């Protein structure tokens, strides 16, 4: 499964992300009930009304957040909002990945304010972000993504529109995008772009959620089969475009091709211990794979063929290792086209004979056939912990995965 976030026209905000996820199919009542459970973690903030409704935005039917709150706060310490978010995800009993995501979101927001104002993260004060809106956006998106299992999917993002003009807030007026937004995007791979909206299109909360959902930026839509599309409406209205965020859910069942380098050398005077060490060292520097094959060369001499698969940028460091560690006097370098079957990473928690385990596996689809590959270290851990044959553990786990994938 591939998730495409499309903020290239209308930008992105926390409520737009949440509304897009509702529009994709998350039960809005689950989100509403979850949010009502956690408002207690921000004193002096009360939700009078919360709902999600369909609305027309410049001809596009989308989902909008309806929110009415009573608040008696002008600022809060960032750490107060962080504590509220941590307590919220605990209260809602979300997955470990969801908990990590929510905490990372608020950390990004606090860190950006800390760097901008030159203060420690513990002393950062929120003004606009002190509202319960921030809690609703971050925890609501976390809950929705957990329901959709998005934390196990590949997520990519198109260029993020930030608008233009100026933005006014508690510290005065500055050019748009605001410093917090720039700081949040600074250490990500995501691309931003301006347009002639003369408004703020990307908010700090939207930015901090986005950079923690994905660091994978694409300029165009990837090849995929469309399964569903969610449209999340922003609060503003614009004359020339729909203020709507699109999130597209699709699948990539087809394989694709790329090009790799093959580095090969024959050695006939290197011990097995050195070859084992060589494999570890080369994989650590970023090789895609390494294989060693025994063989016979001229005059009946035994040899080992070392074959390494890598990207262009790894050639120099890997050739250095091969020469220095084996003493080889030559390395053959060739180009190779490679067919790649699309795969996704997944995980789930399992209680087995009274002990809890985290299971990771890869899922690939080729010509409508699905294959699962369980991480060997997880198989080994369970087998050793429970003193069971590893083959029996694998059979059991495959049945559990089939239940998850085809409930």
Summarize the structure in words.
The longest helix is centred in the first third of the chain and has 22 residues, at 96-117. The protein folds into three domains: 2-251, no CATH class; 256-339, Transcriptional regulatory protein pf0864 domain like (Alpha-Beta Plaits, 2-Layer Sandwich), CATH 3.30.70.1380; 343-405. The chain has eleven helices and 19 strands. The radius of gyration is 26 Å and the shape is globular. The chain is an alpha+beta fold and 407 residues long. A hairpin with a 2-residue loop joins strand 18 and strand 19 (369-374). Helix 2 crosses helix 5, helix 3 (78-91) runs antiparallel to helix 4 (96-117) and helix 6 (179-186) packs parallel to helix 7.
Question: Key terms for this structure?
Answer:
single chain, globular, 36% helix, 11 helices, 407 residues, 4-stranded mixed beta sheet, Alpha-Beta Plaits, 19 strands, alpha+beta, 33% strand, 3 domains
The largest pleated sheet is described as: 4 strands, mixed
Question: Ranges with pLDDT <50 over ≥5 residues?
Answer: none
- Adjacency order of strands in the biggest sheet: 6-1-12-11
Number of strands: 19
Query: Using only CA atoms, what is the Rg?
Result: 26 Å
Element-level helix/strand string: EHHEEEHHEHEEEEHEHEEEHEEHEEEEHH
Total domains: 3
- C-alpha geometry: globular
